[in-house]
Amino acid sequence: MDARFASLLLLNLVHLFLRISAREFLLPGSSLSIEDSSHMLHSPDGTFTCGFKNISRNASVFSIWFSNTVDKTAVWSANHLHPVYSWGSRVMLYADGGMVLEDYNGQSVWENNVNSSSKAVKAQLLDTGNLIVKGQGDIILWQSFHSPTDTLLPYQNITSATKLVSTSRLLVPGRFSFHFDDQHLLTLFDDEKDISFIYWPNPNSDIWTKQRNSFNTTTIGVLDSWGYFLASDNLNFKASDWGIRIMRRLTLDYDGNLRLYSLNKTDGTWSVTWMALPQTCSIRSLCGMNGICVYTPRPSCACAPGYEIIDPNDRSQGCRPKFNPSCDGQEMFVKLPNTDFRGNDQSKNTSVSFHTCKKICLNDCNCKGFLYWQASGGCYPKSSLLGGEMRPGLGRSIYIKLPKTLQVSKSSIPQSQPFDPRYAPNCSAKTKYFIPDFLDQPKDSHSGLNSQYLYLLYGFLLAIFLVEVIFVALGCWFVFRMEGKQLPGVWPAEIGYEMITNHFRGYTYKELQKATQNFKDQIGCGASGHVYKGVLKDKRVVAVKRLADINQGGEEFQHELSVIGKIYHMNLVRVWGFCSDGPHRILVLEYVENGSLDKTLFSSTRLLEWKERFNIAIGVAKGLAYLHHECLEWVIHCDLKPENILLDDNLNPKISDFGLAKLVSRGGSNKNVSRIHGTRGYIAPEWVSSQPITAKVDVYSFGVVVLELLKGARVSDWASNADEEVETVFAWVIRMLAENLMLEGGQQLWISDFIDSRLNGQFNELQARTMVKLAISCVEEDTRKRPTMENVVHMFLSVVDA
Ligand SMILES: *[C@@H]1O[C@H](CO)[C@@H](O)[C@H](O)[C@H]1NC(C)=O
Ligand SMILES: *[C@@H]1O[C@H](CO)[C@@H](O)[C@H](O)[C@H]1NC(C)=O
Ligand SMILES: *[C@@H]1O[C@H](CO)[C@@H](O)[C@H](O)[C@H]1NC(C)=O
Ligand SMILES: *[C@@H]1O[C@H](CO)[C@@H](O)[C@H](O)[C@H]1NC(C)=O
Ligand SMILES: *[C@@H]1O[C@H](CO)[C@@H](O)[C@H](O)[C@H]1NC(C)=O
Ligand SMILES: *[C@@H]1O[C@H](CO)[C@@H](O)[C@H](O)[C@H]1NC(C)=O
Ligand SMILES: *[C@@H]1O[C@H](CO)[C@@H](O)[C@H](O)[C@H]1NC(C)=O
Ligand SMILES: *[C@@H]1O[C@H](CO)[C@@H](O)[C@H](O)[C@H]1NC(C)=O
Predict the structure, then answer these.
(1) Which end of the chain, C or N, has fewer beta carbons within 10 A?
(2) Mean pLDDT score of the chain
(3) Which residues cross the membrane (predicted)?
């Protein structure tokens, strides 16, 4: 009796021992079954649990999770792509250390692939969250730390042999991964169907900007117990609540952002204490094809106008067109302000007009739209609309190509708006696919939903503000560097900085008020406005021109100026910037020492020598030729006259006021050229007779200016009595000159009669003759008979050394 009782007791004890031991470790030959809730492994301090975790009523995944968190946050799982049935599934440990997960039907779903001759002693979950299979002599046969899923725990090394892969909401492999690349840098990859690309660190920045080190072949990175991550490539970051005794995890979330979380032990919730991409919307494939990421303030996906969502429950699938794509050159463009689709540029053209850019896209059936950068005239036609992001203050706009017949309502243009119900997370979808809520701001408290949202809202506004501050700061820094080192204007193709690196920029009215001491020192006054001298903050002396009668809207004005700002030639006055503040339309121009040509040429203060006059004529010709033929936009000056030709300290001419008449496209349409420009005496006949206006109007004006240079008198002063019309006198002089030119050889006295008597005959006769000949052909009534400015320059050059 006693013996039987004793053996029963022993059996019970063994049983009890086994049950207890099952919680601490798993012995070879035994298994954890899914039905028995006691069949779980706990870490000695109870932080982690390993077992079957149900993801729905009848599906489970063998996982390791934080025991004391609200949602039992998993840190590791065995083949989460193949959940097992919630009845009859089990995990077995074999004597050789092999661990196998079997579905209810005996199908092996996962194995740990141990490769050892040593015998296993036990499997056990450590306090670090590492599940290990121990062999004899305490050697580790296998550990979960060496095959992470989407999370790294403190002390868990990431090496070249391991990687994190995001967990997809739809039980399909995640597309984002975090691992060492072939340059030994820890990198975030986006694996699309046929390509894989890096999205963090920014692939466009160089290694110095990345602040990484690609020479260390010992690839390792680890998060320490204080919340500090350090890797061999010098990637390092710190949790915002840096300190000991806080539970943390580094997770590559399903949206592709890598976030460091800290646990609040009181209520078992997580808060973000660091993240790789401060703006989740900058992850290119987040919203899929034709989708646009907006901030509500939480990142959400919207569709581009004309497109509809493919799967409301998985917005990363993107959007499909609601129209039949066609290509008849009859499409319209819809502007999406402050929106960009990153990448997929078919080409890059800078300094093209908006219309040219539109044409490039319209003529290309593969073009789905284009990005136009107002400030620099940058044109980026897109072959696909991927990586869309709408962010207030982004400063660039996308124009998407849609059939003309499509109705596009204003409300279909995506906006970043807090609490916009259109992009609110779908609550039914949420329960279906357990979308975690990401708080994209490190937070330290949340009491109730309202304050949480308020916090997010303020955080969002703050983030935008910070981005602006950083942008402005960077801009200043760039300008500063440019000033200090006089770097050539070549910079990495980072749009947005182009504007700054070119020195061309917008100024506020206040800045210019300050620079000119409230428009005190007036140095000029013309039909287009008053000019004041000013000194910018960076000590540059500038001429500030307040434009009168510009009735263009700010954006149109900026666009035209962005083209003008790109024009750079030694015989053209440089445009440094502009101001379009409220009603003010102001140009910031290069300051030219010696004022305008009329002041010197027609006054007695200083006599212009022959050489100087010839030099001025050739310079003006070169400047005009550049405007007409060489610069990217075809610019017609339309108001060339001595008042608009400035002389620098070496008496080199610089043409000013170009581009103020509306820019004309090379195609030849000229309806937009304003006819209010032009000054009597210099305007070509076709100007008045409303014939087409071409660059030949400038050739005409140039001819008049050359004659003035020769004669040293204003064309309007040529008449000997006040009753005579300027045009009549001018026509008579031209006829006379033309007839004299016909006279072969013989006495050329008429030339010295015509040329400024103040020169006392000190002029080069061949040059003078050539100039007269040229001037006469320039003022031909028939525009086709006038030479081009290029011809003019060539003729001048042929007599330079005479
Ligand atoms: C997991 O199972 C528990 C108990 O059976 C149940 O209350 C819970 O809703 C299940 N979880 C999911 C995600 O289905
Ligand atoms: C899941 O469980 C429910 C309730 O037990 C059952 O009605 C349903 O058929 C199960 N689904 C599958 C796919 O087995
Ligand atoms: C596994 O073991 C076999 C035989 O011992 C050996 O040939 C093979 O290289 C090992 N594989 C790994 C990955 O260690
Ligand atoms: C992590 O790497 C360090 C240095 O190589 C090593 O000492 C440590 O054992 C590794 N930790 C784990 C869990 O493998
Ligand atoms: C490479 O990285 C390891 C680990 O961070 C570090 O100990 C070592 O000094 C680094 N070597 C070089 C050459 O930077
Ligand atoms: C735009 O750039 C492409 C190449 O990048 C070039 O072939 C094309 O001629 C350019 N178009 C204009 C209008 O400058
Ligand atoms: C939310 O998801 C459910 C289930 O997938 C779907 O029926 C519903 O139309 C969705 N609601 C919205 C507003 O997209
Ligand atoms: C943790 O949560 C509790 C309850 O919500 C809150 O009172 C406390 O401030 C939180 N602690 C931290 C460090 O966020």
Answers:
(1) N
(2) 79
(3) 453-480
d(CA 167, CA 159): 20
pLDDT for residue 554: 65
Residues annotated within the binding site for ATP are: 545
- State the average pLDDT over residues 231-235: 93
d(CA 555, CA 338) in angstroms, rounded, equals 14
**Phi, psi angle pair for 349, to nearest 5°:** -125, 130
Confidence tier at 423 by pLDDT (50, 70, 90): low
Strands 575-579 and 505-506: parallel
**41: CA distance to ligand 4 center in Å?**
23
Pocket around ligand 1 at a 6 A CB cut-off? 54-57
- Which amino acid, residue 5? F
Domains and CATH numbers, the chain: 1-147 (2.90.10.10), 281-412 (3.50.4.10), 505-590 (3.30.200.20), 601-797 (1.10.510.10)
CA distances from 143 to 112, 147, 159, 226 (A): 9, 8, 14, 23
Summarised one tens digit per residue, pLDDT across range 560-617 is 676 677 677 889 888 888 887 778 888 888 899 888 999 899 988 889 999 999 999 9
Cα 367 to ligand 6 centroid, rounded to whole Å: 14
Cα separation, 245 vs 248, in Å, equals: 9
Whole-prediction pTM: 0.56
Q: Ligand 5, residue 230: give the atom nearest the CA.
A: 5
DSSP bridge partners of 321:
307
Q: pLDDT, tens digit, for every residue of 337-360?
A: 889 898 788 888 888 889 999 999
445 lines ligand 8 (CB under 6 A): yes
Closest residue by CA, ligand 5 atom 12: 216
Which runs of consecutive H residues, i.e. helices, occur in 116-253? 207-210
Region 610-629: mean pLDDT is: 91
Task: Dump pLDDT digits (tens) for 165-199.
Answer: 998 765 678 889 999 998 899 999 988 777 788 88
Predicted pLDDT at 694: 81
Contact indicator for 234, 213 with CB cutoff of 8 Å? yes
Question: Which pLDDT tens digit goes with each residue over 370-379?
Answer: 998 877 788 9
Overall average pLDDT of the 190-215 stretch: 82
Nearest ligand to the C-alpha of residue 158? 4
Residues with CB under 6 A from ligand 6: 347-349, 352, 356
Q: Which ligand is nearest to the CA of 216?
A: 5
Cα distance between residue 16 and residue 23, in whole Å: 11
Cβ atoms 653, 623 nearer than 8 A = yes
Q: What ranges in 184-275 are assigned the alpha helix state H?
A: 207-210
Q: Check residue 7 and give its pLDDT.
A: 56
- Which residues does residue 458 pair with via DSSP β-bridges, in sequence order? none
State which ligand 7 atom lies nearest to the alpha carbon of 309: 14
Catalytic residue among 639, 657, 698, 756: 639
In the predicted model, is pLDDT for residue 439 greater than 50? no
Q: Which of 147, 30, 174, 53 shows the shortest CA–CA distance to 100? A: 30
What mean pLDDT is predicted for residues 750-755? 86
Active-site residue flag, 639: yes
SS (H, E, C) 668-734: CCCCCCCCCCCCCCCCCHHHHCCCCCCCHHHHHHHHHHHHHHHHCCCHHHCCCCCCCCHHHHHHHHH
Q: In this structure, what token pair is assigned to residue 715?
A: 């064309």
Q: Report the separation in Å between the CA atom of 359 and the middle of ligand 6, taken as the mean of its atom positions.
A: 11
Compute φ and ψ for 247, nearest 5 degrees.
-80, 130
CA dist 421 and 37 (Å) reads: 42
From the CB of 145, is ligand 4 less than 6 Å away?
Answer: yes
Question: Which pairing describes strands 164-167 and 131-135: parallel, antiparallel, or unpaired?
Answer: unpaired
DSSP 297-331: SSEEEEEPTTEEES-TT-GGG-EEESS----SS--
